[in-house]
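Let us work through a complete example step by step.
Step 1: write down the sequence.
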Amino acid sequence: MALAGTSGQVKQTRHEARNDRVGAQYADTALVSGYATSHDGWGPPARYFRSRLHVVDEVLGQCRGGDLLDVGCGPGMLVRHLLDARPGDFRITACDRSPAMIDAVGRQTGRHRDLRLSVARIEELPFPDASFDVVLATGVLEYVDVRRALDEIARVTRPGGLVVATMLNPLSPYRAFEWFLYWPALRLLGRAERLLGIRPDRRHGVRRSGIRALTSRRLSGALRTARLRPEDVVFYDITALVPPFDKVARRWTRRWRSHLETTTSRGRRGWLGTGYLVAARRAPDPELTARSRAIPRLRGPSASPHS
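Step 2: predict the structure and record it as tokens.
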């Protein structure tokens, strides 16, 4: 019993430490600004974000509009894009745990009649049940308790509503090399530079991110557990390059910017995607379905059995 209690305390401590790391990343306005500007240019982050935006656009093209929640909205790049590209189609709620991010959304969008802002955690959304026709969770599930987050997403999605979730692909060569070789090498180099007395702003290093990425199969299973039925899986930011060589090659090969369809795949090349998207539907409420079946259908006076 004592061992079980100790194990539980260790897990809780690790969870709190991870939560603190995640929260600290985007509480700083300078980091928020850096995250926003990384969407621009020709480097790996810009290609990743533009490729992801392309597949989100593709999936939302099947949706006419309605009430949309962007949870974990960040500085509002996707929100700004939707307001510009599909004016009047969506009544958007932008939600993020970071007040600094929500402030950035306000600066990006100004006072827009189709937008409301909310500071809240994805595991504890302050919205009534079945509030939204579309829920977007892009770039957020890697940093949270996925099962709790998906339960909340399912709760606020209307029956038949669309859920769009993205995740970094832990099986891609790019992510495996980045996480297990490149980032550790940079941290080791930074420690050596510290011993040599190099100024902190000149040292190499990578901030501890708190990322925990699931494979597409595991995320699809978690969606089903939350009564969200996966309908489509798309891998994006397809690349066989690994850091740091991708920085040079992607700046040199700029065709991707005008041909974003080449950066995505639903087929064999999918394993090369550094991220993926799953589109799912909220399952109908069993009680409502049973109730509708129990109510006899009335036939109008002019209806015929073959109409």
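Step 3: interpret the result. The chain has ten helices and eight strands.
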